Amino acid sequence: MTGTESPGARTLRRLRVSSGRLAHTGLLPAPRHPCLFMHMPKCGGTSLSQALYATVPIHRRVAVIDAPSTRRAAAIWHKGVDDPRRAHEDLPGGAHTFALREQLLLQHMAWGSWLIHGHLLWSQKAQEHFGDTYKYVTLLRDPVARMVSNYRMAARAGLVRGSFDAYLDGPLARNHARVYLRYLGGLAEVSDDTLDETLALALGRLQSFACVGFLDDIPGFRTAYRDQFGVDLRIGTANAAPDEPPDLSAAQRRTLTALCRHDLMLYECARDAFRAAAPLARRARPLPA
Fold this sequence. Notes:
five-stranded parallel β-sheet, single chain, Rossmann fold, 51% helix, Sulfotransferase family protein, P-loop_NTPase
């Protein structure tokens, strides 16, 4: 959740999660399978995570691999300073944070946590050792809209200085444009000369997911999740940006689209394979080679 959340709102949110967990401990069905929720940044995952937490019975463990605290811990361990920007996952040093999160992921899988949630890269070690135990879930958003949202958050956090055009020319924009490539490719950064190779790898890994939802079709995702896990989700709205999106020129939109080209291809392939017309309880159609 955002740092601007009031104490009252935080208490209400936690009460809703706790009451949901109590209800699913006795009155309502519990999820049929352990779940790994791979949270793609700025794709509506904060709201979804609260809904997921609320379905896990009290006697089952919920593991939250928290983004801000893992940045701080990685910066302290590797840089000797308590400054999350020194290990932010979209900046140089982010590989340290992702490595820490992978270790925590493996620890929670080994511990048998029923729901694991975090901004996590694909872990081949997790897949090899726990892939038959956990069902993978993620939520995607149009990459161009996602990148604009990521820019707005980065600007509010002081990670972006200068004009929007200067941002588009920099390495931070490339990382923001390649979120799906990075996360599904298992790479903190994707170099320009490995884009096509990483896209092929990401497409193959996407087929391992039990549920892939889309921010513009939350009802379809709820249906797919219910078919797979046997529980219904009550998804609210969280982390909505407080400011207005930038007024983009046609040239800037073309640049955004070009930067997001590989993520757009991945997104469209995912929509085709996991579209709402084919419930995800059935096997998704194979993604194109």
